[in-house]
Amino acid sequence: MSRTGRVERVTKESSVLVEVNLDGTGKLDIATGIGFYDHMLSQLGKHGLFDLTVKTEGDLHIDSHHTVEDTAIALGTAFREALGDKAGVRRFANSLVPLDETLVRVAVDLSGRAYLVHVEPDGQAPMIGEYDTKLTRHVWESFVNAAQITLHVDVLRGRIAHHIAEAQFKGVARALRDAVAIDPRESGVPSTKGTL
Q1: Which residues face 56 on adjacent strands?
Q2: 139-195 tens-digit pLDDT
Q3: With the C-alpha atoms ordered 117, 120, 125, 127, is the resulting torsion angle positive or negative?
Q4: Whole-angstrom Cα distance, residue 171 to residue 126?
């Protein structure tokens, strides 16, 4: 069974193509026009072992908001498509990821319900290159709403904005990698409701 998703999303603000293979090897082809965002999406693919293609052309002459948001929406939609009915998946997973002075805890539930809890330190540097650091929360909001999952991301400590964002993407990648993994003991959908 192929667990892949492909989404093309075109608006007046952006044109996005996302392809994901949940059972990949971390093969990456990412270009959004925002160097730091490309770096973060690469963390998601590499540490999740997802084959990930992301091609976005957005209205960067305005700012990076629409490009980041629309890419995250397409990414979440592609993940939801790739998961199908979620039969056999582990469903729940968590991770604890350090990056030098930063420590991030992530928990995920492939619940079919969109819910985000996101905590990160105040007072971060406002920008990393062309990337607005306030957009990291918005990435998770957009991704969670489109993927229909529950996600908790807690930055337990951190000082450097680059590390704070990167540890989040690595932590989400590792938690998703475990949550989407096939459990050989699970014969159906992991829910007493019979559906997720």
Answers
A1: 16
A2: 999 999 999 999 999 999 999 999 999 999 999 999 999 999 999 999 899 999 989
A3: negative
A4: 22
Pair of tokens at residue 141: 């909001």
Quote the tokens at residue 163: 């590390």
Q: Which residues have C-beta within 8 Å of that of residue 33, sequence separation ≥ 6?
A: 56, 57, 58, 60, 67
| Distance from C-alpha of 107 to C-alpha of 175, rounded to nearest angstrom | 6
Distances (CA, A) of 115 to 6, 33, 63, 112, 195: 23, 29, 27, 10, 18
**Residues 6+ away with beta carbon under 8 Å from 188:** 87, 88, 194
| Cα separation, 183 vs 187, whole angstroms | 8
CB 48 within 8 A of CB 72: no
